[in-house]
Amino acid sequence: MRITVVGTGYVGAVHAACMAEIGHQVLGVDIDRDRVARLNAARAPMHEPGLDELLARTTASGRLRFTTSLAEAGRFARVHFICVGTPQRPDGPAADLRYVDAAVDGLGPHLRPGSLVVGKSTVPVGTAARVAARLRRTAPTAEVAWNPEFLREGSAVRDTLWPERLVVGVTSDRADATLRELYGPMLSVGVPFFSTDPATAELVKVAANSFLATKISFINAMAEVCDAAGADVTTLAEAIGSDSRIGHLFLQPGLGFGGSCFPKDIRAFTARAEELGAGEAVAFLHQVDAINTRQRLRTVELARRMVGGSLEGRAAAVLGAAFKPESDDVRDSPALDVAAALRRRGARVRVHDPEALDNARSAYPELQYAHGIPEACAGADVVLHLTPWQAYTEIDPAALAHVVRARALVDARNSLDATVWQRAGWTVRALGRPRLHTADPHGPAANGTPGGGARGTTAHGAGGRAPAVAAGRPSGAFLWRNSCMSW
Description:
The protein is of the alpha/beta class. Helices cover 39% and strands 12% of the residues. A 6-stranded parallel sheet has the order 3-2-1-4-5-6, sandwiched between helices.
């Protein structure tokens, strides 16, 4: 089948490559000429595991190419996917649909008779009907369907090729049959296919994101209670997650959610529900959002207490800039939000991330950045673990003790082994775990036993040479590939 994909950001680039991978002829369309050139050269415009290889394979096969021309797209196919961004409006919580409108208005005059326009963007309920009415002005025979995406950044290729379910909102048997044919390879291996009306399909996506966000904020609310009661939220989460009705997924206490989906989607959902007169039904999502935001403030407060009550003039090392691991996306990144808040309170902040430094530097130019973990932590009064990259679990805390000024760690993701760090003389703090046994962060030299390098230790330790920080790796190994992104 010949299809086009309008908008080649995270959703569009991955969808285009994956549809070509399962055998379709695909033309991707974007207004960004540099992005189109990069994609035609089989280079992903963002860090996404497996996407470069997929682009290389599908462009070389001739099944995938990219253009800036909507007129060419109209000639190329009768099935067109809209994958543009729907950010939060600058003047309120509602979704900004200007990019959807621009894509539809630009494509409409070029559509062939009987074309099917399929939305994948996350939108407020009622958008498909609105788009259909808008499209009738320029393409009266075109039909609109909605097919929300459920991919996760960091595993987007896998989530598209092996989805847990497919949801389509259609208004005709013809549209249903077209989408069943398109996704035939997935349906042949038993992927559930839900064919419904467009409004229900739109709601499925925002309801799913709202539920997952609620689960995250619930366990973080429990972390607040644990801090007040002297209990341990990690044990609590493990215990309640063992209940099959609850499960462990999205029950990881810590810094909370961020990125381009959950925060703006729950706000847009509440705004749309209020427009429909159903605002009370989803009023709890305001608390979900508030709890999530509060985790960031609580992390800053934890760091403040660890350095003696004031961040003014203190050196803070921030491990993580991306909103989640295996991504270079820094949109609404909890890590960078915390880093900026530390700086506003007078701290000298240096940030490390394996993939997101270029994007972080563009978004927060006032922060300092380091390409290596030892460089980021040199002379630090406190180290904050804010994005749970695998590289950070491989850090040797005894070696890192020779680099920092004080062995003070805030594990805001509750994913490091506190016992290992404490044995190396570190004081460890984490949200919802007030009973963590602590060591003196300013005690005597650290050699992998309780107590560590003196407060005045230089970045290269007593021997004048930087030790390996990650187990099994020299410190110079922390050189990372970075990539930029735009819509």
